[in-house]
What we know:
This protein is of the alpha/beta class. It is about 35% helix and about 25% strand. The strands form 5 sheets. A 6-stranded mixed β-sheet has the order 1-6-7-8-9-10. The chain has a 6-stranded mixed β-sheet with strand order 11-12-13-14-15-16, with no helix packed on it. Helix 4 links the parallel strand 9 (about 95-100) and strand 10.
Amino acid sequence: MKDFKDIVYVGVDDTELDLFEGQYKVPDGMSYNSYVILDKKIAVMDAVDKSCIARWLDNVALALQGREPDFLVISHMEPDHSAGIAAFAAKYPSAAVVGNTKIFDMFRNFYGVELPNKVLVKEGDTLLLGEHELTFLAAPMVHWPEVMVSYEKKDKVLFSADAFGKFGALCNETDDWACEARRYYFNIVGKYGVQVQALMKKLAAYDIAAICPLHGPVLSGDLGEYLSLYDTWSKYEAESVGTFIAYACVYGNTKQAAYALKDELESRGEKVVITDLARCDLAEALEDAFRYDKTVFAATTLDGGIFPVMEEFIRHLKAKNYQNKKVGIIENGSWAPMSGKLMRALLEEQKNVKVMDTVITCRSAVPGDIRELCAALADELLG
């Protein structure tokens, strides 16, 4: 890390990974981040995924330059960060593993063994390394219950666990941090906005010069954009004014109606993003549903219910605490259009979701008055 001579990055990129956590597409791979703080005493900050242990240990040894580490600090027990703990402990038996009670309980549950050399810490405890001092802050449910973050006082560095992370290997990093950070946040952390807000309030008491997450690049310089986005996301506020249209259909008529609404909204200057749920990355669709202040759900009726991929999408939104939106509905049904009624019922279960009164109904083909219907729905959405 060029800005901090005593803090060295020792993480590893995985460019072969296709699905993160078994479900999220990562075409640019994934980084598993770890750091070494060099002082009178040496602390290694977090371990890595099992696929990267050998490379990580090589990086650690290179950073140590023949010295022995004193501590391995663990902030999060997901296997992509904890799988390397046992190998580290075997290589450096004199080093103590630092964590809280839940971390050590989870280690036992995951790996079936006890760590022989450990240091138990809790909220507000400190670890003095020399010139560098770590303060530990509990961050429960951001996004697991055991999570803690560490603030390094000398260089004003926050080791933030999974907070402020993003998809993508560092070797494939681009300047657009927000795109993959947003998809990562809403799909992985997003359910826990209240808990993220609690952490943000704690962090407000600290002067932070850099953020070192467990995935993605180190954030430094002007941190205002990153902190502001995290504040917006965790409050479930819309980041952008615009309409996201998600459609799911059989023969193309529902799609045609969705595009007719898109044309109407765009003619009024509205930003519109549209996607076919059957063909897109649902994680990206979820990201867009949270990003914009309005969403339109367009789905065919199938077997008296909602077209399956749409029902899955709405239930997934609910699981992630989708809220504070204006939404519109387009339905289709050749003899018994039921998808609109059923989508409304699911959406109205969610907090502060206002469903528009106007529903565009297709009975097989797009109705002849589609322009008038789109205008009426646009009036409500933009009103």
